[in-house]
Amino acid sequence: MAKSTDVRPIVKLRSTAGTGTTYVTRKNRRNDPDRLVLRKYDPKVRRHVEFKEER
Fold first, then answer.
1. Would you indicate the residue range of the signal peptide (predicted)?
2. Helix, strand, coil abundance in the chain, percent, nearest 5
3. pLDDT number for residue 55
4. CA nearest to 50, candidates 23, 32, 28
5. What's 18's DSSP letter?
6. What is the strand order of the sheet 22-26 is part of?
């Protein structure tokens, strides 16, 4: 059985602090059809900031 990438695509999360830091993750399109926003650690500013999905 082939792995379906339609339901769980790979997305990039870019920092809103303007440092250019990115995280790469997968998301479930059925549960999260909108753009993903997560609070994660940005090592350049040394604190947690919001990371938004980039397309």
1. none
2. 0, 45, 55
3. 78
4. 23
5. S
6. 22-26, 10-15, 47-54, 37-42
Tokens in use for 21? 């830091």
Q: What is the CA radius of gyration of the chain?
A: 13
27-35's contacts with Cβ under 8 Å and 24+ in sequence apart are 27/53
Please tell me what DSSP assigns to residue 3.
P
Cα 19 to Cα 12: distance, rounded to the nearest angstrom: 14
- Give pLDDT tens digits for 25-36: 999 999 999 999
10-54, which class in CATH? mainly beta
